[in-house]
Amino acid sequence: MSEDDLHLHLQKLNYVFNILQVSLHSLAVIADSGVKKSHATSAVAHIWVNNSNIKQLQMHSTHVTPDEAELMAIQIGLIYVMEINDMHNIIVITDSISMAQKILKSNINPFQNIVIPLATKIKSYLSKDARNNIYFWYCPRKANWSQHKLIDDQVKASNFILTIPCKHSHLFSKKKECDNILQGWQKSFLTSLKKGHYFLNFEDEKQITIKPTYAKGSSWLPFVGFTNSLCTCFTRMTTGHAPIGEYCQRLFPQSQVSSLCGAEIQTHKHIVMECNLYEPSTRPCNIIINSFVHFLADNPAAFSFNNG
């Protein structure tokens, strides 16, 4: 969402909220949650009527996923307000609209233990009176909307210790197992025997070393997946498996290993950082991945089979 879109969305949110606050038989539920590194979870919902925060609800748990925590926050708010008499218009404001949508869909999903009981209560509330309505509204966290920020600050300040042991949710257990597998994969990847002696390590825009992952289109592909040729050349450059002297020296000792520019051995680092066959202004000045992608885009002959 662009800054202009965010500003427009915030204007609409303020308009809807203000109209609701001066309307009879109407209220707003603002829900949010947070999961700390200790796996302690706080789910919070504020109830607003007539421009007053009339109720603050909070639920604590441990060993649940962030998505489950968001549903818990929506759940405690909705269950409370649906029991209030003569309230016909309810708006739920959340920064996790995707979780809210799961409540309204009948397809099978992993959150059924929360969704089914809540959906049943919503159905009962809507059937009780034809005037009853429930609306969901998205509030991006980065909008820093004042009413939502109250909850966000409360969640961050929450510090509790459960005295009764809490079982891991099924989704949390799956996530923990998946995280352990991913960490083991990343750890083994760091050893040269796993990734190869000639592998180039890169950093992202935040100067954090890029590690392998299966999420969000993998680690490197989102940066280089524009064209097949660019992706191919990037892979050759990164692994050192390319039609260059350094690679040929290992597999074909009798072949030419020097660079056309005169360098004794044509290495992949030499091509990118030193070779005068390529325009110096296109060379990367750091190990951030985008600078290498730009080099390959400006020099399509590099690491291709027709580079001489």
Identify the CATH class of the largest domain. Alpha Beta
> How many structural domains does the protein architecture include?
2
CATH topology tier name of the largest domain: Nucleotidyltransferase, domain 5
Shape: elongated
What is the annotated CATH architecture of the largest domain? 2-Layer Sandwich
Low-pLDDT regions: none
Q: Total helix count?
A: 12
State the end-to-end CA separation: 45 Å
Describe, in plain words, how this protein is organized in 3D:
The chain is an alpha/beta fold and 308 residues long. The protein folds into two domains: 3-157, Nucleotidyltransferase, domain 5; 215-298, no CATH class. The protein is built from twelve helices and five strands. It has helices at 3-21, 66-81, 97-104, 112-128, 146-157, 170-189, 192-195, 221-224, 228-239, 245-251, 268-273, 289-298; strands spanning 26-35, 40-49, 52-62, 89-94, 133-138. The chain has a five-stranded mixed β-sheet with strand order 3-2-1-4-5, sandwiched between helices. Strand 2 (40-49) and strand 3 form a beta hairpin. The longest helix is centred in the middle third of the chain and has 20 residues, at 170-189. The chain starts with a helix and ends in a 10-residue tail after the last helix.
